[in-house]
Specification:
Length: 340
């Protein structure tokens, strides 16, 4: 085999070797094997001196061509390899992804409004435990042992060792806790979650929110209650609102009354939402029962007071035009985003 044939063979071997895919490491080795200082090409150049003088020029030309071919092919592979590296695909013309911005839950919005109105009238905010002692939820609130609210089917009793706790059915126990530790004058509201084992439907939820108000001082009258409740509803719904009080029974208060507000949809003329009555039921209220005062060590001869309780969902439903109480607790983001 003469040297020209040998060059042809080397070229074909190189071509065959570079048909396949490489790893970066294999390609590096190939470059060293062919183009390195002691590689095949360098070795061939060393052998030029062994070539007969008349063939040397031609051999040099073919060898140079081989070197250029090998170099070009290896560089081509290196370029392919670089282009396969993962690179960032950024289309700067695409609209950006806007981060989701959180907002206040509709019940929190209403609660903040309620709190603002009462703070403006000199009330402070108090809270108490949701897992409450049975005695605070019923006995100290003058709830007789036969009262249906105590029923197992209405109340979530907790399986504690002492069997003395439940999930509070109203926020009224907070009033007891405040009166036990604080002497009058007392002027507080107590907002919070309460629990009753109601089957969920559009108007019932086993969990809901109440806000409780309590005012105790010397000479507090039912007229104070009416004035405060009216000012509260006007603060929330506007100056056109009127209220009325209907006699009712609550264990905690005597006398007791349910509070109605003029329908905010028909302004009192009668519509479907107020069942043509022109009035909406809003909550319960009354003068604190003397028995309750005696239980917390306040002298009912010296002090008097009133209390009221109302549902926060009821107000949210009216203000936002929501027709199902369950929406406030399902926390569907499509619902919540309409408020924040
Ligand atoms: Zn109406």
């Amino acid at each position: 085999m003469n040297i020209s044939e040998e060059l042809g063979k080397i070229r074909r071997a190189f071509e065959a070797a570079t048909e396949a895919d490489f790893t970066a490491e294999e390609l590096g080795k190939l470059r060293v094997a062919y183009l390195g200082r002691k590689g095949i090409v360098a070795d061939l150049f060393d052998r030029i001196r062994d070539v007969p003088a008349d063939e040397r020029k031609e051999f040099g030309r073919v060898l140079n061509e081989l070197k250029l071919f090998v170099t070009a092919r290896i560089e081509e592979h290196e370029a392919t390899m670089r282009s396969k590296k993962p690179k960032e695909n950024v289309d700067v013309t695409l609209p950006g992804i806007v981060g989701f911005q959180g907002g206040l839950h509709p019940l929190t919005i209403i609660l903040n409004e309620i709190t603002d109105v009462f703070r403006g009238m000199g009330f402070t905010v108090e809270t108490g435990p949701e897992a409450e002692l049975i005695s605070y939820n019923f006995d100290k609130l003058n709830t007789p042992f036969w009262h249906p609210a105590r029923d197992l089917t209405d109340t979530f009793y907790l399986d504690t060792p002492a069997r003395d706790k439940l999930l509070r059915t109203e926020t009224s126990p907070v009033q007891i806790r405040v009166m036990e530790r604080q002497k009058p004058p007392i002027r507080i509201i107590a907002p919070g979650r309460v629990y009753r084992s109601d089957k969920p439907d559009a108007t019932h939820s086993p969990i809901f929110m109440q806000v409780e108000g309590l005012y105790v001082d010397k000479g507090v009258s039912f007229a104070d209650l009416k004035g405060t409740v009216l000012a509260f509803y006007r603060g929330l719904f506007g100056p056109h609102v009127k209220t009325r009080f209907r006699p009712h029974f609550f264990p905690f208060t005597e006398p007791s009354a349910e509070v109605d507000m003029t329908c905010i949809f028909c302004k009192g003329s009668g519509c479907r939402l107020c069942k043509q009555s022109g009035w909406l039921e809003m909550g319960g209220s009354g003068m604190v029962d003397p028995n309750v005062f005696l239980g917390v060590g306040i002298d009912p001869e010296e002090y008097s007071g009133w209390a009221f309780g109302l549902g926060i969902e009821r107000i949210a439903i009216l203000k936002f035009g929501v027709d199902d109480i369950r929406l406030f607790y399902e926390n569907d983001i499509r619902f919540l985003r309409q408020f924040g």
